[in-house]
Fold this sequence. Notes:
The complex is a heterodimer of chains A (313) and B (363).
Chain A: H1 17-20, E1 30-35, H2 44-53, E2 80-89, H3 110-118, E3 120-129, H4 137-141, E4 147-149, E5 155-157, H5 168-171, E6 178-179, E7 192-193, H6 199-203, H7 209-213, E8 219-223, H8 224-240, E9 247-249, E10 262-266, H9 286-309
Parallel strand pairs in A: 1-10
Antiparallel strand pairs in A: 1-8, 2-3, 4-5, 6-7, 9-10
Chain B: H1 19-24, H2 68-91, H3 95-119, H4 138-158, H5 162-168, H6 174-207, H7 212-216, H8 221-240, H9 247-268, H10 281-304, H11 309-339, H12 342-353
Amino acid sequence: MMKLPFDLPFAAGPEGPAADAGWQDAPDRKGFFTDTSICIGCKACEVACKEWNGVPQDGIYELLGSSYDNTGALGASTWRHVAFIEQRVPRSAPVDLGMPSFDRPGEKHDHQARDQETGDFRWLMSSDVCKHCTNAACLDVCPTGSLFRTEFGTVVVQDDICNGCGYCVPACPYGVIERRNGPEGTKNVGIAQKCTLCYDRLGAGKTPACAQACPTESIQFGDVVELRERAAQRIRKLHEQGVTDARLYGADPHDGVGGAGAFFLLLDEPEVYGLPPDPVVTTRDLPAMWKRAAIAAAGLAAVAVASFAGSRR
Amino acid sequence: MSADRPAGVGPVSGGQGGEQDRGNRRGGPGRGRGRRGGGRREQPVVPDANFVSYYGRPVVRASPWKADIPTYFFAGGLAAGSSLLAAGADLTGRPGLRRATRIAALGSVGVSLYTLVHDLGRPARALNMLRVIKPTSPMSMGTWSLTAFGPLAGVAAVAEVAPALERRLPPRLRWTARLLAVAARPSGLLAAAVAPMVGTYTGVLIADTATPAWHEGRRELPYVFAASAATAAAGLGMITAPVAEAGPARRMGMIGAAADLVAEYRMETSMGIVSQTLREGSAGRLMRASKVLTLGGALGVLVLGRRSRVAAIASGAALLAGSAGTKFGIFHAGQASALDPRYTVVPQRERMEGGGSTGPRRP
Lengths: 313, 363
C-alpha cells in the first residue's frame, strides 16, 4: 500500500483524537451516550438545541406522515432529531393453560385469532445527533480548514472560515452535515452547519443543551471512556432482562469510523432508525485512490506523448 | 399484513405510497422488500435485495452541488487535455494546433474558476481555499494544482498574441511582449506537467465521499475522468485546429475514446447494485448518449477525420459532447444514489455479512 507523506489518523491513539490533532494536555474526550430504550420522544433535546444555539427554523411547518416525527432528518438547521418508529411485533403463541372454554375442542376464540393477527405494538424513539467520529470524513475533506478537531475531541465548523464548498455534505457517512439554505440574511446561510456538541458550553464546564434538557437521561453527556463503560453495563442489564434486541451503535473503536464520540443504544437494526449499518470514513480509501489517480495521470500524459510520437511533421 | 409470515415474504412496499410501512418493517412480519414502485413484472437483472429504511428517507446526504460542478469536471478535463496537446504542438512545430489548444486551455480554465466560485455558498470567501494545504482533502489538492495551472496556461495563451502586441505597443513597452514570447514555451510545458493532475483529481474528489455511486466507482473513476479529459480536448482541438495539423488530436481522441469506453464498462460491472444508478433516469440517459457519441466520434475520426474539415468538426463535437455526458451522467448517478437509501444500506449489509468492514483497514 502506498504510504503518503502524511499519516492519516485512521485509528486515534490511546490519547484520543484531540491529541492526534495536535492538542497538548487536552481534556478527556467528551461525547454523548444516547440510550434510546428510555427515550420518551418528548423532543426537549431538539428544542433546547435550537434555543441555545440559535438555530433557525428548518423549512415550513409541515406534517411528514411519519408518526410523530415532523422534523425529518438531521441537517443544517436540525442538530438533534428525534426519530419515531411504529412497529408491530409478532405476539408469541398463547400458552394453553387447559382452562375450560366455550368453543368446541380445537377451535380458537375469535379474539385470540385476532390478537395473533395484529400482534403487539411498540414505539421506537431515538434522538439522533452528529457522531463526532474519531476519524471524521467531513473534517478530512474540508479544503479550508474550517472544520476542526476541538480539544474535547469533537468536530466543529468555524463559521467565519467556511466558504460553503459543500464537500463535507456528501462525505459524511451519516448524512449529518448540510449547507444551510435560506433567504439572504439568514444566520450562517450558505455555509456548512451541524452539532458542535455545544463547544461554547463545554468551554465553560457545562453540559450540552440537549443532555441538560433530557428529562429521562436518555441523552447522557460525559467522558467517552466512562460513557462506553456505562453503555456496556446498560446493555448487559437489558440482555439479562430479556431485551435481546438491544445493541450498541458507534461504541466500538474498531468500526469503520474508529468509533463515534456520540454513540447509541438501539433496540433494532440501525437502518430502522435511518442510520447506516456499517459506516466507513471514506478517506480510509484515499491513499489507494490517489495511487490510482497517479496511474491515470501518468496514462493521460502517456496518451499525449503517444499522440505526437506517431507522426513527425 | 399478517403476523405469522416468515421473514422476507411480507407484502412488498411500493416505491411511492408505502413510506410509513417501510419504517415498520423489520425482521419478522413483512420485512420490506424494498422494491421499485409500479407493476414491473419482468425479472430484474439484479435481484431486489431486502432492506429496511426509515420511511424511505436517505441515509447519506446528496451533495448540494448543481450543474456548476459537473460543468467544472468537464471544463477542468478539457483544460488539462488542451494544455497537453498545446505542449506537444509547441514542441513538434504545429502553430495552428498550438494556438487553438492554448486558447482552449485558458478559456476552459476560466470556465472552471467561474463555476467553482459560483457554486460556493459564500463566493466572497473563495480565497479561503488557499488557507491550508491538506492532502486528506482532494478539493484542497485540486485547488492548489489549479492555482498552479491557471496562470501558466494563461501566460502560454496570452503569448499567442505577443507578436501582434509587439507591433502595437509603444517602443518603450515592447519588452513586455518579448518577455511573454520568451515565457510562452516554459509556461506551456509547466502547465502540461500539472495538467494530468488537474484532469484526474476530480475522480478522486467525488470518489472520496459516502455517495454510493461515486465511492463504489472509486477504482475506475480516475481512469474514466482522465480518458474523458483526453477525448474532450481532442474533440475541441479537431474543431478549432486546421485538419493538416490536427493529427495528434485525432489520435488522442481515438485512444481517449477507447480508454473511456473500457474504463466505464469496468466501472459499471464492478459496482454491484449501485451500478443501477448509472442506467436509470437522467443519469442513464446521459451515460447511454455519451457512449454513443464517444463511439460515434471515434469512428468518425477513424474513417473521415483527416479527409474533411466538416467531418473533423462533427466528430470533434461528438467527442466533446460525449465527454460532457460522462461527467454529467456520473454526477447525476451519484446524486440519485444518495437519495435512495437502498444504495447505502444494501451494500453495507452485504459487507457486514462478509465479515464487516470494521477496523481502520485499507482495502
